[in-house]
Design a protein that fits this description.
The protein has one domain: Rossmann fold (3-Layer(aba) Sandwich). Helix content is about 40%, strand content about 10%. It is built from 14 helices and ten strands. It has a seven-stranded parallel beta sheet with strand order 1-10-9-5-2-3-4. The protein has a three-stranded antiparallel beta sheet with strand order 6-7-8, with helices on one face. Helix 2 (about 50-55) crosses helix 3. The radius of gyration is 21 Å and the shape is globular.
């Protein structure tokens, strides 16, 4: 059983198949419960006992629902259909934030790690959205790495992946170069990496690396991107940069004092989507935000309770055309937008 999702078009989420016009409310509820159980089991990798506790049913009922989902061909290489609540959230995000498409991944327990669910939804979307001839700029981090198991690779002609951020340094659980390379490999494309640290010690060092070490050619590729794929990090907790040693505690505190709520490719921004006034924003070996905004397809994938302010700021900073997040993050973003 491969884990993944398939919905309408490239839409990735878990849900029940649309009921017939004369289906009763009880049938519709049973459909939704069955598909949610399938999502929890195959995507979130919860045990049958844990699923029973969350859904308020017996373990035998969970076993029966999983078997029925298989019999109905709802679980093959995908979990098919729509959850009406999820669809409402997607439409609300699209309307309130002015984006072309929102994809919301079901997450059964609020506070649980959303990366597996978001990764599955993002992987399903990317499998369909990537086309021959595209140049795609990518960031890196746990969320993006989490998409790789769910991408259905295929050979694409003249497909290029350009890393938008350096990251050479000490070994870490998340290898900066690995995501761009494996993403390009999935589509049998070419990968272009930035062989430099994520952050340097001075503007002069940054300029020298770009102008004298051949990095200018890689940065120039970002001038004509067809798509960008990025995630955001939050400033308040141990995000990728903080855990990785790129950011000291003293620097983080100064950024917070300046109003920073998160970063995108080591560009630290506030809740209004403006870059904060701090020297570190000049030291990241990353493509500037203006180039990211110029890509016609801008995919932002992230979620988690601690990232709501960062997500709200990123919506204004990078103006994504596609947002992929989990249902609890979506709800909080919608509530924040309603409050103004």
């Amino acid at each position: 059983m491969s884990k993944g999702t398939r919905g309408s078009g490239a839409r990735s989420r878990s849900a029940a198949a649309s009921p017939e016009a004369d289906a009763s409310p009880a049938d519709s509820r049973a459909d939704r419960l069955r598909i949610r159980a399938a999502w929890m089991y195959f995507i979130e990798q919860m045990t049958q006992n844990d699923i029973a506790d969350v859904l308020g049913v017996g373990r035998v009922t969970v076993v029966r629902m999983l078997a029925e989902a298989r019999a109905r061909n709802e679980v093959r290489i995908a979990i098919e259909g729509d959850l009406s609540g999820i669809v409402r959230q997607e439409r609300a995000l699209e309307q309130r934030f002015g984006i072309e498409r929102a994809i919301v991944a079901p997450l059964s327990v609020e506070g649980a790690d959303p990366i597996p669910a978001i990764g599955a939804a993002t992987g399903g979307y990317l499998s369909e959205a990537m086309k021959s001839g595209m140049s795609v700029g990518v960031g890196w981090g746990r969320t993006l790495t989490g998409t790789l198991p769910y991408i259905s690779g295929k050979p694409l002609a003249d497909f290029r992946v350009i890393s938008l951020l350096g990251g050479v340094g000490v070994a870490r659980r998340t290898n900066p170069a690995e995501f761009a390379w494996r993403f390009a490999q999935a589509f049998q494309g070419d990968g272009y990496l930035i062989p430099a640290p994520a952050v340097v010690d001075s503007v002069e060092t940054k300029r020298a690396l770009i102008e004298r070490c051949g990095l200018s050619e890689i940065f120039a590729l970002a001038d004509s991107l067809d798509a960008v794929l990025v995630s955001v990090g939050d400033i308040a907790s141990a995000s990728t940069f903080y855990r990785g040693g790129f950011l000291t505690d003293a620097e983080r505190e100064k950024l917070v004092a300046k109003g920073a709520v998160g970063d995108l490719l080591f560009h630290f921004f506030n809740r209004d989507g403006a870059l904060v006034d701090h020297p570190i924003n000049e030291l990241g070996m990353s493509v500037d935000v203006d180039r990211i905004r110029r890509a016609p397809l801008r995919i932002l994938t992230s979620g988690g309770t601690e990232k709501i302010d960062a997500l709200l700021g990123a919506m204004k900073l990078v103006r994504p055309t596609v947002l992929i997040t989990d249902e609890h993050s979506a709800r909080r973003m919608i509530e924040a937008a309603e409050r103004g």
